[in-house]
Amino acid sequence: MSRLLIVAGALLLLAGLAWPWLGKLGLGRLPGDLLIQREGLTLYIPLTTMLLVSAVVSLLLWLLRK
């Protein structure tokens, strides 16, 4: 369990350091991401982005367990 936490922390650190470059990939503006704008309210729900990130994290965890 401690190894998993260390790897997760390292991945979060790398993602944080690479954020300026990751922002250029277009994550958060994919087809399927919902943006509702009304007077006095902006609601953003990144459905496609969440599914993509979840699939990548699941694949990484599966590879680390093998």
UniProtKB/TrEMBL annotation:
Residues annotated as transmembrane: 44-64
Superkingdom as given in the UniProt entry: Bacteria
Pfam families recorded: DUF2905
InterPro entries for the chain: DUF2905 (IPR021320)
Keyword terms: Membrane, Transmembrane, Transmembrane helix
Protein's recorded name: DUF2905 domain-containing protein
